[in-house]
Every structure is written in C-alpha cells, then in structure tokens.
Amino acid sequence: MGFTKQNARNKLRIAWSNCGTDSDPVKINDLTITPEPLSVPGLLTLTADVDLKSNITSPIKVSVIVKKKSFFGWVEIPCLDNIGSCTYEDVCTLTPFKEPCPPIFSKHNVPCTCPITQ
Hints:
Layout: E1 2-5, E2 11-15, E3 26-34, E4 38-39, E5 45-52, E6 62-64, E7 67-70, E8 73-76, E9 86-88, H1 103-107
C-alpha cells in the first residue's frame, strides 16, 4: 500500500497493489479505504473484495508494506506498534472480536475468528 501526500497538511491519498502470487490462498480483488483523502490522525474504513481459494488456519502470516512518496522517491514506513510496514506472524491473534461476531460480519458471512473457511 502506498501513500501520496496531499496539498493539505496531514491529508494522504492511498494506492494499493496485490503483491502476492497466484498460488496464495487469498487474493485481494479490490481494496477501498475511506475517507479519501485520509486524515491523520483520524478514523478510516477499510472495504475489501477478497477471494479465498482454500481454508486457512492459524498461524496466518501476513506482510504489509507501507510506502510514502517523497522528494527522494518511495520510502518504506517502518513498523511501529504494529502500524506501518509490518509482518504479522499470526493475524488470528490480532482479532479484536470475541464471540459472537459483530452483526455486519454475520450479515455478509465474514468470519471474525480463525480458522477461516471458504
């Protein structure tokens, strides 16, 4: 995911790319982050269209790379307190939800605990 600075102070434009391979069990088809531009600090909403090709169980390792476009080109933002360019050894341990899942998850058949099944 890359960040591009806006004219207004602390406003960011967001761009993303799926850097996985065809053999990955998860494919991100679309990712939307709102509001656009993103205000920092502030709240954001993340919406994703994802294909799950197989059941996945803990541990689920995820790597996220965040870059900012600067005068010198793209600069990778380091991982600080699990924010930035981080590798999460098991995203199942990061879920803030306990049973039951929030209603919006249940309505759209989105799991909020591991394992994640097709």
